[in-house]
Amino acid sequence: MEAGKVPNEILDKIVLSKINRFRKDIILRPGIGEDCAAIDFDSYACVLSTDPITGAAKDVGQLAVHISCNDIASCGVEPLGLMVTVLCPVGTTEDELGKVMEQMSVTAAELNVEIIGGHTEVTAAVNKIVISTTCIGKALRNRVISTRGARPGDSVIMTKSAGLEGTAIIARDFEHKLSGKLTKAQLKKAGDLLNSISVVREGVIAGEFGASAMHDITEGGVLGAAWEMAEASETGIVINKDKIPVEDVTAAICDALGLDALKLISSGCMLITCEKGEELCSLLEKNNIRATVIGLITADKKERILASETGGIAAEILPPGADELYRVI
């Protein structure tokens, strides 16, 4: 298999199909495009999500906090605690570990999230620091939103711009690949996008507004998240390519390296569905969160289309493969 997330077809066939014990206490279970679990605690639900950071070398502490907190936010839930596993290669210095912990502590404090436990180890099993975080949140049982709740007729909203995380990682970790192709000002702007990769605020706002489904846009980019949301919801989806916001520096990096910005890891962006798309966009904009209606949920399960206002149907939206970031790595 190639680097990156296990393809959805294999995930369904080999991983998810092996789960054969189901408890009535579990109200949100694993599935394609579903990043969280939820456990019934009477009128409340405990919401959990876990994720590793493997594609980045720098800023791994900051990324590790955001990636799991973003998953919890996609349920419309405010994250409250983090369990952290840190695996360090042999030879890691105390200073290197200290910097990672400082990044995690600062980022968690900014999100009002407490690091409540975990495990730290030096091991020959890894060749760079690998962090896996499990985030925990609490919500009223009937207020938990899943990826699978999109309904025909819902607007599809995207926050911020495509490829945010991938743009920042490439600019910070692979600056040498962009030598002579981007200016120093462009590289700084690209790297600074790392400060925009939280979706906690938009997740909580959209959840309170009444979103039907949410999915934070990670590996596979905008198109991967769109396919996963439609697959989970058993619906069709039509995305207007011309409406998808892409930062100039993201476009410049993708042009320089031959990447597709719409298939580039995009933590910091949320895909949201609801009935009143423009109204939710206005609410998010009032909270200084860029939001754009980029498509529509349809009833035809086979209709997974990337359209263009100028050229009609641009392409079929396919199941996500390896993220574009791995082509750089």
Automatic annotation (TrEMBL):
It comes from the Bacteria. One of its GO terms (biological process) is protein maturation. InterPro entries: HypE, PurM-like_C_dom, PurM-like_C_sf, PurM-like_N, PurM-like_N_sf. CDD domains: PurM-like1. It holds the Pfam family AIRS. Signal peptide: none annotated. Residues 151-305 form the PurM-like C-terminal domain. Gene3D superfamilies: PurM-like C-terminal domain, PurM-like, N-terminal domain. Residues 33-138 form the PurM-like N-terminal domain. Belongs to the HypE family. This is Hydrogenase expression/formation protein HypE.
